[in-house]
Amino acid sequence: MAQAALACPRSPVEVVERFMAADCEACWQAAGGAEDARAGRWQFDWIVPAASGEDAALSVAALREAGERITRGGGRAPLPGQGAEQRTPIARTRAPLRLEVQSGPAWNGYLALQYRLAGRAPAGSSVWLAVVEQVAAGDDGTPIARELVRGVAGPFAAGTTASASGAVPMVALRVPQTPQPQRLRGRAWIESREGRIIAVAAENCPWPGRAGQAQRPAQ
């Protein structure tokens, strides 16, 4: 997939996850909490389904997996008409890890994603894949940049690979209906048994980073 250049977090030490109830259009339009990826933060924006279902203002982007992610991370789901934010340090691991994610061309409504993992992840860890829509500040009614999670696949056992290179078979995720498919990116992350995030990678942004970048794995 042709992509614009993507800024990678420098020395990422924190994950910012925003959870919005699908009936909280005001949460999407809120101006506070802008983040700078270069400051060392990975960002996820999740929309949690509301009781009003498809009548909710943000229902088109609501994911069941958003509520599941809150539970795994030990947070609380946003109340109806509200949002919640969770900031957590990236968990430290004893052994260095390398995580990469790639996407294939979108075809017939799906996008193929594949991750590669090198190193030994802690026992019980899991790998997750997602299609993330990068929404720039000022677009679609949001005054701040968003990393909107539009589709999720997982969990995959972190110790299970299909080849010596650490690559696993490609996984097809349905591409959300959007007039700007060029905003879609692949992302992967590793969670510990307790739901803490250990590593995050985006396309062109491997964990812990490339030569010349200041990203480093937690030691």
What this model shows, in words?
The protein is mainly β and 219 residues long. The chain has one domain. The protein is built from two helices and ten strands. The strands form three sheets. It has a four-stranded antiparallel sheet, with no helix packed on it. Strands 2-1-3 form a three-stranded mixed sheet. A three-stranded antiparallel sheet has the order 4-5-8, with no helix packed on it. A hairpin with a 5-residue loop joins strand 9 and strand 10. The longest helix is centred in the N-terminal third of the chain and has 10 residues. It is globular and about 45 Å long. The N terminus and C terminus are likely disordered.
Relevant terms:
three-stranded mixed beta sheet, disordered C terminus, single chain, mainly beta, disordered N terminus
**What is the overall number of helices?**
2
Share of residues in strands: 35-45%
| Helix percentage range | under 10%
Which strand order do you get reading across the main beta sheet?
Answer: 7-6-9-10
Main sheet? 4 strands, antiparallel
Structural shape? globular
Structural class: mainly beta
Query: How many strand segments?
Result: 10
Mean pLDDT: 85
Order of helices and strands: EHEHEEEEEEEE
The domain count comes to 1
Measure the end-to-end span: 33 Å
Radius of gyration: 17 Å
Low-confidence stretches: 1-5, 211-219
